[in-house]
Amino acid sequence: MKKLKLLTLLFINLLFVIWPPKSTNSCGFYLSREEYRFWTFDPNNSHEPGLQPLFYSLDYSHKGFNTSNNYGFEIEQSDEFLGEYADNIKLWQAYCLEVDPSAKVNPSDIETILYHTEPIEYFKIKEGLIEQNSFLQFAAKNQQVLSYLDYAKKSEYQSNQHESWFCYDCPEIIAPGKMNPGKTNYYYYDVNIQPDPIYGLETIEKGKLLLKNCTDLFLKERYAFQIVRTSFYNYDSASLREYYFKYLNKMPINSWLRNNAYMYEVLFRDSLERNIGLTKIFEICPDKRYRCEELFQDALFEPSLKLVDNNHDKAMLHVMHSLQKPMEQLESIKTIIALDPTNKFLPFLWVREINKLEDWILGGDYTVGSTKNESFFTYDEMSNQAIFSQKQKDLQYANAILTTLEQGLQNGSIPKSAFYNLCAGYIAFISKDISKANEYYSKVAFNQLNAVGQTQLLINKLMLSLSQTDKITPLIEDKLADCLVLLYKNSAENPQYKTLQMQLINFAAKEFRGRGEPAKGLMLYGKSAQPYAYHPLLGIANVYTQIYTYATPDQIDEQLAILNKPNPNALEVFLRSKNYSYTYDYGYEDNFSNWDQNKLLDIKSMKLVQQDKLLLAYETVKLIDTAYWSNDVNSMFKRDDPFCLNPWNGHDPMNFRNVSYNKKTFLKELIDLKLKASKSTGEEKAQLLLKIANAYYSMSYSGKYWIMQKNFQGGWEPEQEHKDVDPTYYSGARAKYYYKLILQTSNDPKLLGATIYILNTAFETNTTQLEKNRAVIRRNTNATDYYEQLSANCDLFYEFIKTYN
Amino acid sequence: MNPNIQKIVASLSFLLLLFALWQMGTLKRTSATRAIYYWKTSFEKNTYGNDRENDFIQKHEIKKMYVKLLDVDYSDGAGIFPASKTRIEYYPGEFVDSTFYIPVIYITNQVLLHLDSANMDYYAKNFISNALRLETHIHRPVKEIQIDCDWTKSTRDTYFKLLLCMKKWAPQYQYSVTLRLYPYKYRNELGIPPVNRVMLMVYNIDNARNYKQANSIFNVNEAAKYLRKKNYPLPMDYALPVFSWTLVYRNHQFLRVFTNNIIPEINTNIYAGQIDSTLLKRLEPNLFLVVKPNRGYDPYSLKAGDILKVESCGEKELIEASLLISRLPFTPQTTIALFDLDPNDLEKIAYEKIEAAYAPFH
After folding, report:
1. Comparing A381-385, A598-602, A677-681, which segment has the lowest mean pLDDT?
2. A183 contact residues in B (CB cutoff 8 A)
3. Chain B residues with CB inside 8 Å of A158's CB?
4. Exposed end of chain B (fewer CB within 10 Å): N or C?
């Protein structure tokens, strides 16, 4: 039996070797999945600052995260100076006035000295700074302050990342003339701060002396903070604890100075005590939440729990534990409610579960898929059955959450507040229980909600309307426009509204497309940078890619009409505004462009060419401005002769006639050729057919003028064996048809031989088919000879082309 | 003339010609060792990535390369600290690299002013081991270590003690120091450093810290004044200038120097060739005001209001400096080094001129 099992396993493994799961191999941009989670329920509803919508890495769960969107770019000062930095600047400003009521110290000068002047730079240009910076001028007049600032900068250097003497590749000198060689295999950058054994300890001792001689309480506390910080980075736990407990521990609980020092003190504790300390800081200090969550050791959650004796602290440990878990956390929420029903993080935890449901259940429909499915299956393995069954489980989980929430509202363990009714309504909506969603939304007391909550209710009701309607009505359009404009207007106060607006657009676009307004739905995508993550073009996709992929020629006409109508409604005004030019860098303000009607006409012509409606396509491209044909994309094709083919390389310009085409002139010539061919016979017709066939080949995937049919080439193109996806494009079926027509029309041995040569070279890899094609000219010795000559001498084909084109 | 005499004269002339050719060959063989300085924040040596640098080295048969590995500075904020450690990317591939490498440590005079003899061993060891990182990467020992320092009379003793201390910890190496024109001339006051050789730097005359100063790199008339004495008690090598630098001033104070002309780089958008004229304002031909930092790409941490001064030494200065050293001592062991290996500067100078600079003693 064991042998049978072994054989079975080996056989399964063999199957995997022979038929490995398909993986996508393509070059281009890759976007982090976390940039594209679907959420609309704003965590700011929970009134706890410093927390973001759910994503699956800690970086995304707090304000102040870094993403590729601002990588390499200067962070705006205003963004950086939220929180404790701003508090500190205010404290310093007040202090300056207290010391010298006539002092005119500019807050931005304080900011420059404290946060934008590196220690080495500070000492190098101090004289110049004193001349120009009002804060340093004030300090220069008050020697105690200047001494403190000098010291603070020294401490800053010892406490921040800096170049140290230590290096892995340095040989180690162990005695005069004796060395251990350096290491060759190491990670180049050492991220830890290496203490300076000479200046580090010297700085701590100097600080103690300065503090002792300082008479100013404000400065004394700051000296103590600098000593604590420097001690932390120089592993001097005794000095750290002494100065923390003596000078800082009793400061007000909301003091950033105290909380930062507290953080250093906690980080010196043993791991279990450290977990407890981090939990405490997380609770009281929003600015430190990200760091606490990152440093909390979840593996020690159970033993940490045993060390605390009151329910509130236990509940807080459960909060920290719950935040570490990206999957279902309803049980944690129940435990926290039981331990500490008024825990201030409960609303956020509910929001977080809602965000998870949005991602798992709605994600696939309105953005690019759900995190849960992606974590279980690779992209190509995601079978519909697997996704369906996972979604059923997620829906059950949504029901479980709703049931718990409803029970809590009934038994009083959860307050019957507007917030919780809003939560219940939205969970019901996600669970597709529309009537219950309506019922809960009607219970929400609008006035009890703050501005964020009121906006949330507006969004949720709008989503409900969009999901209930059979056909999009003018009223819904107006409501959507109002909501989108409202989010935009308030995005300065709440930066998350920019993302929220995009999510709502993704949602609305899908509903519009399914409820009778596909043209407008597709136009909506221009205002969102987040629906394209799995599009073949990934980050460089834009609204035109969506329109090319999904719109019909009639819908494009409808879009053009919207762009030109004299009295647009509010939504149409919104649709007519600028679009995201590309989606990869959606954080940039200059990443917007006006609608390009020429581009829309161009896309329409591609659709018509795909259907071989050349006359209609020609009528469409005639409407395009002449300048459009000189743009970056179109000018790439102007050196090609699409009527001439090198069967070995379809992208060879073959421009012996020195011609230059654009789509309009190309279509015109192709139409003329087809008309002439229809009216001619014999060899004249055969030669025209050769040009027509070449032109169709040029418009195919392998041809040089593919732009006639496609808006882009590359990305995840179907593989060779998937030519049936679009035979006219991928297989060049229309071109093949015309080459075969030549064989029925011509008696010219050269043309016949060359046509077989083209068919065999450009289309066939199958030996049987190659022989079959050759058999067509079997009885024509001259044609066969010419075919053989062409096969033996590549240059001869160029001679043929020059003669026949 | 008697035909026999004619034959003898012709034969003698021919022999004389052969002798002259032989002599020229001899001269060529005894010409200076050609060297170059590599003075960047990253030392990159690989087969495919440094075509322009490799081309220069091969074309001019460069045998030695002085690679700056460490900048040591002092700050009231940091104490004595490694201001810059050169990153090493050494992948010569299949080519045999027979270049002699000499790691160079640059130490500011400020370091000497604050170097306590109690900590001398600690720093000497760190300086050496940071310089010898080069051995780890090139997988062979170096023979010489060079220290570049503009010492003064007041720091002379500390400097010499430091040199001896370094020798104590790593006696297996030869030591050389760079010698500026001032200590060359005022050798009685500034002393003779306790090393094996000196590299006379025929440049860096004026004070770069003053942004109103004209070209501070080289002035032939000024330099000549320092070279009246023809001998020095130690074997001498010579460094000639071919470089540009950008001096950065903030709040009218000298902040730092970059050893290349950074203007084209910071004036350009992230897309090659696109100039953003709003970033810099030209105040004078070689003086620029940073109007706003380049948001797309700025590895130089500039701030609005910074003043940038660009100075360069080209063909003219190279020839002048080369002529100056032609009157100084020369032995078969003498090295002539160009400062530094930057194709942007070197490619502006004709091949023959570079060759001539390497052979000033002929």
Report:
1. A381-385
2. 136
3. 78
4. N
How far is the CA of B76 from the CAs of A60, A155, A195, B73, B114, in angstroms?
39, 11, 17, 10, 10
Q: Where are the alpha helices (DSSP H) in A702-761?
A: 727-730, 733-745, 749-758
pTM, two decimals, is 0.71
The pLDDT mean for chain A works out to 85
Q: Which A residues in the span 23-82 are in contact with B, Cβ-Cβ below 8 Å?
A: 72-74
Which residues in chain A have Cβ-Cβ distances shorter than 8 Å to B171? 176-177
Cβ-Cβ contacts under 8 Å for B251 (sequence gap 6 or more): A125, A127, A128, A129, A131, A132, B305
Q: What six digits make up the tokens of A264?
A: 């250093």
Of B77, B133, B137, the CB nearest to A120: B77
Give the domains, in start order, of chain B with CATH numbers.
32-243+313-358 (3.20.20), 244-311 (no CATH)
CB-count burial class (<10 Å; 0-12, 13-18, 19+) for A241: middle
Task: State both tokens at A184.
Answer: 């060759």
Residue of B222 and A380 predicted with greater confidence: B222
Q: What per-residue confidence (pLDDT) applies to A718?
A: 60
Residue of A nearest to B166 (CA): A176
Tokens at B236, concatenated: 């001498």
CA distance B360 to B362: 6
- The answer to whether B319 and B353 have CB atoms below 8 angstroms apart is yes
Cis peptide before B340 (omega within 30 of 0): yes
When comparing pLDDT for B185 and A67, which is higher?
B185
Q: Select from B75, B171, B250 the Cβ nearest to the Cβ of A177.
A: B171
Predicted local confidence at residue A366, as pLDDT? 74
The C-alpha atoms of residue B266 and residue B262 are separated, in whole angstroms, by: 6
Are B79 and A122 in contact (CB < 8 Å)? no
- What pLDDT score was predicted for residue A492? 83
What ipTM, to 2 d.p.? 0.81
Neighbours of B69 (CB within 10 A): 26
User: Which among A122, A170, A198 is the nearest to B130, CB-wise?
Assistant: A170
User: Is the Cβ of A345 closer than 8 Å to some Cβ of chain B?
Assistant: no
Q: Is B75 within 8 Å of A124 when comparing Cβ atoms?
A: yes
